[in-house]
């Protein structure tokens, strides 16, 4: 069976990456692409790298134009998808790459985003360890999926195994991320001009203000919950919150995130027990890989691939576990996670249309 697909926000970075991956997916056929200021343009004029989709023309992003498809991927600025997806039929699989449906707690939405709160959908990070299983279990059969924030999923994947296994403490987490400017989208913004970025490393959203913080805390609360927890259950809600100091730094690379995330070691825990926690979490995962002891990833190792590579060390003197995680923000950080989650929801092979191999050099 071939599923008919629409992509909203197809002129942007996330939309473009969705289209690149969907063009190679054997069960998905992209039939509608929508945009905002670029509506009416030929897709190939806006996304010249997508030669195999040259027959498509961008149309307005309206519920009407997105109706009549089996699957709709949405890659719009936050606050824009909720208005539109509310009008799509319940049986359509809708995967939102924006933030509108990621947060379970409306107070978090109000504090970090503001505006209308559209409610939480099933979170699209299948590998997150939760209770006796994985977030994957909740994605089976889902028809509304919230793909993750790129920084949020990177840090959550980095730290969740240790919290889930009880070998690191959920308080006093620290994450510093080197991030590429494509994470901020294609629209013109002064801090993202080449003249501001080339030859410089530029911190932003310092001091607990970044919008991905509540999303990270939410994932880590789920990871901490004992038993086969429903993330929205009272038992899970009563798990202690993680506390995290989170600092992103824009660096001169188009794509990629390198997250150094550290946590206090639970006293008395051996280095072997720490490594076993991450090995247990990710041993069978096709896209999330723990590197051997002493090995650490580079962003260049994951470009174009739906992989997260994690290096792990125990700093005995500091009493901290150190994780270094590399992902491509546009693939595992958004479009790849969206397609992987859609595959699971539809009962397809999870890896269809996705690759573990990156582009090098
Ligand atoms: N970039 C990443 O690495 C990344 C990672 C994870 C999640 N995301 C999320 O994915 C979503 C898209 O991000 P992006 O990086 O692709 O942004 P982008 O490059 O700026 O693209 C935004 C898209 O939304 C359209 N758009 C802009 N204003 C609109 C409006 N008022 N109404 C309807 N459509 C509008 C744009 O159309 P026109 O170009 O035609 O105006 C474009 O297609 C965001 O919610 C972002 O948080 C992005």
UniProtKB/TrEMBL annotation:
<dbReference type="GO" id="GO:0051287">
    <property type="term" value="F:NAD binding"/>
</dbReference>
<comment type="function">
    <text>Catalyzes the NADPH-dependent reduction of N-acetyl-5-glutamyl phosphate to yield N-acetyl-L-glutamate 5-semialdehyde.</text>
</comment>
<dbReference type="Pfam" id="PF22698">
    <property type="entry name" value="Semialdhyde_dhC_1"/>
</dbReference>
<dbReference type="GO" id="GO:0005737">
    <property type="term" value="C:cytoplasm"/>
</dbReference>
<feature type="active site">
    <location>
        <position position="150"/>
    </location>
</feature>
<dbReference type="InterPro" id="IPR000534">
    <property type="entry name" value="Semialdehyde_DH_NAD-bd"/>
</dbReference>
<keyword id="KW-0521">NADP</keyword>
<keyword id="KW-0028">Amino-acid biosynthesis</keyword>
<keyword id="KW-0055">Arginine biosynthesis</keyword>
<dbReference type="InterPro" id="IPR036291">
    <property type="entry name" value="NAD(P)-bd_dom_sf"/>
</dbReference>
<dbReference type="Pfam" id="PF01118">
    <property type="entry name" value="Semialdhyde_dh"/>
</dbReference>
<dbReference type="InterPro" id="IPR058924">
    <property type="entry name" value="AGPR_dimerisation_dom"/>
</dbReference>
<dbReference type="InterPro" id="IPR000706">
    <property type="entry name" value="AGPR_type-1"/>
</dbReference>
<keyword id="KW-0560">Oxidoreductase</keyword>
<dbReference type="GO" id="GO:0003942">
    <property type="term" value="F:N-acetyl-gamma-glutamyl-phosphate reductase activity"/>
</dbReference>
<comment type="similarity">
    <text>Belongs to the NAGSA dehydrogenase family. Type 1 subfamily.</text>
</comment>
<keyword id="KW-0963">Cytoplasm</keyword>
<feature type="domain" description="Semialdehyde dehydrogenase NAD-binding">
    <location>
        <begin position="4"/>
        <end position="136"/>
    </location>
</feature>
<protein>
    <recommendedName>
        <fullName>N-acetyl-gamma-glutamyl-phosphate reductase</fullName>
        <ecNumber>1.2.1.38</ecNumber>
    </recommendedName>
</protein>
<dbReference type="InterPro" id="IPR050085">
    <property type="entry name" value="AGPR"/>
</dbReference>
<dbReference type="GO" id="GO:0070401">
    <property type="term" value="F:NADP+ binding"/>
</dbReference>
<comment type="pathway">
    <text>Amino-acid biosynthesis; L-arginine biosynthesis; N(2)-acetyl-L-ornithine from L-glutamate: step 3/4.</text>
</comment>
<dbReference type="GO" id="GO:0006526">
    <property type="term" value="P:L-arginine biosynthetic process"/>
</dbReference>
